[in-house]
Amino acid sequence: MLLTTIIVIGLVLTLDLLVGEPPNAVHPVAWLGRLIAPLDREWADSERGQRLAGFAIALVVPLIAATAAGGLVLAISVFSPLLGALAAGLVLFATSSLRSLLELTETVVAATDNDDLETAREEIRGLVGRDTSTLSPAEIRSGAVESAGENLADGLVATLLPFALLAPVSLPAAAAAAAWVKGVNTLDSMLGYPSKPHGTGSARLDDLVMWLPARVTAVAIALAGTDLKAVFRAREWARDPPSPNSGWPMATLACVLSVRLTKPGVYDLNTDAALPTVADGERAVAVVGRGAVVAALLAVVLAAGITALAGSLEVVIS
């Protein structure tokens, strides 16, 4: 199963780099988003009632995604283990994203280099949710670089780690875990705002789920930038963003690149450095890309450890 896990992870990364994300019409995450959209409404007259409804949503919706993915892989595996492994890989592919993140970051950075600020402000909306109308070119680049670091955790590492943890034991369980995490992330991105009490449960669950992936991503970025000490330097600013997790990959990337990353009025990371130049933005794309490879290698090491542990347990039981 370890070899199968390695092949599936390699296939998924290769497929992402060659193809990118599927169109929304056939993207399972987009289908999930359409399922969630009608849930974004008032469920009760009181804030407490809204929160209770939100916790129920946070419990049920990711389970629907997990059941669908795991059930599909299990059903296909009954007929053909090979096709089952392929189906598990397609689930991981659908729940992860790298190429689109890197390409969009490159587009935003290049637009600031060409003084095409309207394009930069338009394109960066796919990366950040802040008001970009008054941002300077350097602040736009900062937003793009921040998002590249944060979304490496959300878009790849968060689903890759549980998949690697479970795949050596059960591919259906691995696919279900990846889908469950993506369900949690998608709920948080759509409902997890302070203005939406029914999103509180989704936000809290996402904070819990992303605790480890965010920190693993920080380590992967530091290794990719050949500056492991950047993780320790990043501790000074990692807790400044409102999210308990996003600051780790962002602050580590800021330290690796020796740049300042800021969301005006919210947080300021690596404050002694200057805001990123175009060259810094290009380096950020390269570091995040290498960070994805490092994260994949760490996932393979995790899978190997689980395989060895499972083998030891079998020997003890027998």
From TrEMBL:
One of its GO terms (biological process) is cobalamin biosynthetic process. It is a multi-pass membrane protein. GO terms for molecular function: ABC-type vitamin B12 transporter activity; threonine-phosphate decarboxylase activity. GO terms for cellular component: plasma membrane. The chain crosses the membrane at residues 52-75, 82-102, 160-181, 292-313. Pathway: Cofactor biosynthesis; adenosylcobalamin biosynthesis. It holds the Pfam family CobD_Cbib. It is found in: Cell membrane. Keywords: Cell membrane, Cobalamin biosynthesis, Membrane, Transmembrane, Transmembrane helix. Converts cobyric acid to cobinamide by the addition of aminopropanol on the F carboxylic group. Belongs to the CobD/CbiB family. NCBIfam families: cobal_cbiB (TIGR00380). This is Probable cobalamin biosynthesis protein CobD. It comes from Natronorubrum sulfidifaciens JCM 14089.
